Amino acid sequence: MSLSAAEDDSGSEIRIPSDIDWHMLDKSKFFFLGGALFSGVSAALYPIIVLKTRQQVSSAQISCLKMSSSIMRFEGFRGFYRGFGTSLMGTIPARALYMGALEVTKSSVGTATVSLGFSDTKATAIASAAAGLSSAMAAQLVWTPIDVVSQRLMVQGYNNSNSSKHVIRNVNSCRYRNGLDAFRKILYTDGPKGLYRGFGISILTYAPSNAVWWASYSVANKLIWGGFGCSMGKKDENGMPGCSGFKPDTKALVAVQGLSAAMASGFSALITMPLDTIKTRLQVLDREENGIRKPLTVLQTVRNLVKESGLAACYRGLGPRWASMSVSATTMITTYEFLKRLSTKSQESLTS
């Protein structure tokens, strides 16, 4: 796939580094370094995910500040990392599947769209959307069971906090010692399907979200370079700004990547937040029927949300999710581009 990294309608040239395709990567280095780098990113952002999850299973709106102080007071710093070990174990294989599917799809679809005569911008957007869709679906095969277990651990201890009066009655139906204990008990109680609770809604949440995010990111990236490329260039001999032959430095590249990621995250979070709230509740909550606990259905979950606060209930945790997605995406895309450059094969390997 040979797509330029940015273009300018005025015909001026912005020489930013070209995209690194799948065939240009040293795969072993790519997956090994990727696992290490993204594990660090996950550790840094995990407390925000805990806040989001607890807000989503709360029966009333609780501010992030109040929720944070409650966790710190009643559970200590460890409360922000409930289920992190389980989540980290799933991050490595899930990320490997995600990155592999992303790069293979982006490269193959990009080549196909260019050969069909699509413009550079459209080809990039289509390839990015398809790559986001396929990578999310591949990762969910691993991530859904990990999500179910880690989210159960995240909300455990919620009844002991100052916000316990807002806890939904069925949120803590079972106590778990650790991730392995939770895995065993869920498997014993609900069978393998219990570990894949919410798998369908997860696909409906993350597949479109990833498709929207990667397409939005690619378009935003091109628009920013096209709109501001000239203003970032050096002045010519007459003291006038010019961008012919402009080659941005590393700081400019990171800034544009970060801004593009934040814009794409905001758009994606607004569109998919209701689905994410429904997914979280499906994976964490139960219902009682004749004294027997059973999983909630999607329809029952939606009805409960509407009863509580109407449409607003679907957007509980939007602040942390937006912040998490923006910070995560900005960190992820800059780390990801850095990872690809670290993993690029030598010129001799590419030509051999």
What keyword list fits this structure?
352 residues; mainly alpha; 11 helices; 2 strands; 2% strand; globular; disordered N terminus
SSE diagram, text form:
Elements: H1 27-56, H2 64-74, H3 84-115, H4 120-155, H5 179-190, H6 192-195, H7 199-232, H8 250-284, E1 286-289, E2 292-295, H9 298-309, H10 318-342, H11 347-351
Antiparallel strand pairs: 1-2
Helix tally equals 11
User: H/E element string?
Assistant: HHHHHHHHEEHHH
Distance between the termini: 19 Å
Which secondary-structure class do the elements indicate?
mainly alpha
Query: Overall 3D geometry?
Result: globular
Strand order of the largest sheet: 1-2
- Unreliable sequence segments: 1-17, 232-244
Radius of gyration: 22 Å
Instruction: Report the average pLDDT across residues.
Output: 77
Helix content: 55-70%
The number of E-state strands comes to 2
How much strand?
Answer: under 5%
Largest sheet: 2 strands, antiparallel
